[in-house]
Design goal:
Largest sheet: 7 strands, parallel
Shape: globular
CATH superfamily of the largest domain: P-loop containing nucleotide triphosphate hydrolases
Number of strands: 13
Radius of gyration: 26 Å
CATH topology of the largest domain: Rossmann fold
Bound molecules: adenosine monophosphate
Number of domains: 2
CATH architecture of the largest domain: 3-Layer(aba) Sandwich
Order of helices and strands: HHEHEHEHEHEHHEHEEHEHEHEHEHEHH
Distance between the termini: 71 Å
Structural class: alpha/beta
Number of helices: 16
Strand order of the largest sheet: 3-4-2-5-6-1-7
CATH class of the largest domain: Alpha Beta
């Protein structure tokens, strides 16, 4: 097995690695470091959690230790899709270069241009930036990219999702042709392939196993249900989420709750707070100081539930998360692996629960296909509702917990029966134990209203709370 000492890294870097407590290089480090030190371009197909950050920072520090920074002309550039990831890469540099004299600047939104300009003016060895902010600096005429010897693109597939590819192409064209490029992506979409063909020169291609295969310590489960009505989907999903959290009790010491959309991140966070949970949102629209505060609170344990979008959570290194909840099934199956990989780290056990409604069905199938296994179905933890009246007007999407029928999520019973599509001869996504008989288990709550013919007056469908409020 390769040892760090075999990799020709600077002895001061080796010392820092030892102090960080790393014993052996991860596969991507063992493969990529010799190529990077040898001056070759590297195409790393790897996800967070594989040790990919050190696979480029360690050789960069070793190479940059020889030579000096020049004013306004950084010697290396690392591009990251999000501020958090950029900040984390910067932390990695600090850890591994603590015995080497290197200067660095972090160019991310939310930090004043002035502070960053001062650093650039003095000269930096390493510039770590998000693409937009880097181009802002460039356009202000304060920065030259013609001194770049090594350029890293981290999480290129995420850049693609975020629409950064034109910026990346522009940045490539502003750096010297002779630069060395280290390029990382979890997947190789055609657009990514095109960029690597254009800007990398005979790269060493290194692919490491998906984290999906390494997630044996994570217990997974999914609540598949059909909302009682389309306009109540979000409310009912939140009720399911709360019930799942409650069912876990103290075992759920902290959790990340993932939503596909930023707007849901905010709504879910607000709703949980309203229901008395220590919860806070994190997504790209929040300002940097707020995000840092939230993350610090989560790490320190003062915030129990972090509600996040995929982009914001990418690259966050939070060591001990007991639970992950997917409020939605992610639209990219790889994101499921990223999400659940936030728990069960370093041999600890963890639990990951997913809420799936009919609109998530095709994404759920792709997740199971990627994992090559079925995710166990769980009973819907929310009490079974009485059916909504036929002519009921749409209720408000109120956050107040109400004991009325339509506030609970209805387990899915008829799901997919009509669609008939199945990837592995499956009849329905909800083939778990959640198949109560149609009426017998509702404690008689939904017995027909008698004595009024077919018509049920609207007020009967309203709860006490609603009547009081009105
Ligand atoms: P990354 O894939 O770069 O996000 O790294 C994931 C985590 O693995 C980080 O917390 C690193 O500190 C840690 N790590 C990186 N390399 C090693 C190693 N060789 N041994 C143990 N942990 C490592």
């Amino acid at each position: 097995m390769t040892k760090f000492a075999d990799l020709n890294l600077n002895p001061k870097v080796l010392k820092a690695i030892e102090e960080a407590g790393y014993e052996t290089p991860t596969p991507i480090q063992a493969d990529a470091i010799p190529h990077a030190l040898g001056g070759k371009d590297v195409l790393g197909i790897a996800q967070t959690g594989t040790g990919k950050t050190a696979s480029f920072t360690l050789p960069m520090i070793t190479k940059l230790a020889r030579g000096r920074a020049r004013a306004r002309m950084p010697r290396s550039l690392v591009l990251c899709p999000t501020r958090e990831l950029a900040a984390q890469v910067a932390e990695n540099f600090d850890t591994y270069s603590k015995h080497v004299k290197l200067t660095k600047a972090l160019l991310i939104g939310g930090v004043s241009f002035k502070e960053q300009d001062v650093l650039i003016d003095k000269g930096v060895d390493v510039l770590i930036a998000t693409p937009g902010r880097l181009l802002d600096h460039f356009e202000r005429g304060k920065l030259l990219l013609t001194g770049i010897e090594i350029m890293v693109v981290d999480e290129a597939d995420r850049m693609l999702d975020m629409g950064f590819i034109p910026d990346i192409e522009r940045i490539f064209s502003l750096t010297p042709f002779t630069r060395q490029t280290l390029f990382f992506s979890a997947t190789m979409a055609p657009e990514i392939e095109r960029i690597t063909n254009t800007f990398l020169s005979a790269p060493a291609r290194i692919e490491v196993a998906r984290q999906a295969t390494a997630s044996e310590t994570i217990e997974q489960g999914a609540v598949v249900f059909k909302p009682s009505r389309r306009d109540r989907e979000s409310t009912e999903k939140r009720a399911v989420l709360r019930a799942l959290i409650e069912a876990e009790g103290e075992a759920c010491s902290n959790a990340i709750i993932f939503c596909n959309r930023k707007v849901d991140v905010d709504v879910v966070a607000k709703s949980l707070k309203k229901h008395g949970y220590d919860a806070a949102p994190i997504h790209g629209d929040l300002d940097q100081s707020q995000r840092t505060r939230t993350l610090d609170g989560f790490r320190a344990g003062t915030i129990r539930l972090l509600i996040a979008s995929d982009v914001a959570a990418r690259g966050l290194d939070i060591p001990a998360v007991s639970h992950v909840f997917n409020f939605d099934v992610p639209s990219h199956a790889e994101d499921y692996v990223h999400r659940i990989g936030r728990t069960g780290r370093a041999g600890r056990s963890g639990k990951a629960f997913t809420i799936c409604t009919p609109r998530d069905e095709k994404y759920f199938e792709s997740v199971e296909k990627l994992l090559q296994k079925e995710i166990p179905r769980l009973d819907n933890p929310v009490a079974k509702p009485a059916p909504a009246a036929k002519d009921e007007t749409p209720a408000q999407d109120s956050e107040t917990p109400q004991p009325k029928a339509s506030d609970s999520a209805e387990p899915q019973r008829e799901k997919s029966r009509s669609s008939g599509k199945s990837s592995r001869g499956r009849k329905s996504l909800d083939r778990g134990a959640d198949k109560p008989s149609r009426r017998s288990d509702r404690g008689g709550q939904d017995s027909n209203v008698v004595g009024m013919g077919d018509h049920m007056p609207e007020f009967i469908a309203l709860s006490f709370e609603e009547r009081r409020a009105s």
